[in-house]
């Protein structure tokens, strides 16, 4: 073997070794990647269908509750049971305010228009919701989810005043972040509407390929919301995650966020 061929062989070996090491990396609690299943808006379907399905596969989800939702006030004992089973109850504000000044926001009412809020009002309502959630599950650590993904009131990032109240805040922008680059004030998520299990599995496999994690953002699962995925597609997703438990860590948002914080600078 001449010198040129020898150098080429060594370079190829190094590349293959690096690729193998990356594919076999187990930085996510001993797994190749992490998956977080989040469900927004406190829907009846979450209690009636989603949580029983998650329990049957022994997975735990994160449910972002709207404080003033009747599905919260009328079903507190069931949410309390869900929390005891290991599901996370996250903060999705008191009134789910969204910025009504943005295009396509005809659904926003005068009372729930974030553009008409003051920052102190937003902070106060979010902290009231934390108090409510604490009364349900007894927990003091929690994560937050921005309604409609809106980060600002006028030009102010209102979450900046809440960073010590939460472990992390989930946004709505998709993307696969390296552990060291995770922004805890706006954690990426993959919004699902009409998605098939095949499409969602492909997103997981991309996260695994990149050695990253993925947060799924669901609303309706089998109905009750205009943003919806089919219940059977959701079941197929869980079936896949069950088969891949050796390599994929599925856990609530708070567990994954805390793990990232603990390991981000290692």
From TrEMBL:
Residues 33-251 form the NodB homology domain. Keywords: Hydrolase, Signal. The keyword Signal applies. The keyword Lyase does not apply. GO terms for molecular function: hydrolase activity. It comes from the Bacteria. InterPro entries: Glyco_hydro/deAcase_b/a-brl, NODB_dom, Polysacch_Deacetylase. Its EC number is 3.-.-.-. It holds the Pfam family Polysacc_deac_1. It is an enzyme of class 3 (hydrolase). Residues 1-21 form the signal peptide. This is Polysaccharide deacetylase family protein. It comes from Flavobacterium calami.
């Amino acid at each position: 073997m001449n010198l040129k061929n020898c150098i080429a062989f060594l370079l190829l070996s190094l590349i293959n070794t690096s690729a193998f090491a990356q594919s076999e990396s187990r930085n996510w609690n001993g797994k190749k990647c992490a998956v977080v299943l989040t469900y927004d808006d406190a829907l009846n379907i979450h209690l009636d269908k989603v949580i029983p399905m998650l329990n049957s596969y022994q997975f735990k989800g994160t449910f972002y509750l709207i404080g003033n939702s009747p599905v919260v006030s009328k079903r507190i004992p069931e949410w309390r049971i869900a929390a005891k089973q290991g599901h996370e109850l996250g903060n999705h504000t008191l009134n789910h305010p969204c910025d009504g000044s943005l295009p396509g926001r005809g659904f926003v009412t005068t009372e729930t228009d974030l553009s008409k809020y003051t920052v102190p009002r937003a902070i106060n309502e979010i902290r009231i919701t934390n108090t409510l959630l604490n009364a349900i599950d007894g927990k003091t650590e929690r994560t937050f989810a921005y309604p409609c993904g809106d980060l600002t009131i006028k030009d102010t990032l209102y979450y900046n005043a809440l960073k010590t109240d939460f472990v992390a805040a989930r946004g709505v922008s998709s993307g696969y972040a390296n552990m060291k680059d995770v922004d805890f004030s706006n954690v990426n998520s993959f919004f699902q509407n009409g998605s098939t299990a095949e499409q969602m599995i492909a997103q997981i496999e991309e996260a695994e390929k990149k050695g990253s994690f993925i947060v799924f953002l669901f609303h309706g699962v089998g109905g009750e919301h205009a943003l919806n995925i089919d219940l059977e597609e959701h079941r197929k997703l869980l079936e896949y995650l069950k088969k891949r438990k050796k390599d994929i860590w599925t856990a609530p948002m708070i567990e994954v966020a805390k793990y990232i914080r603990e390991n981000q600078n290692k």
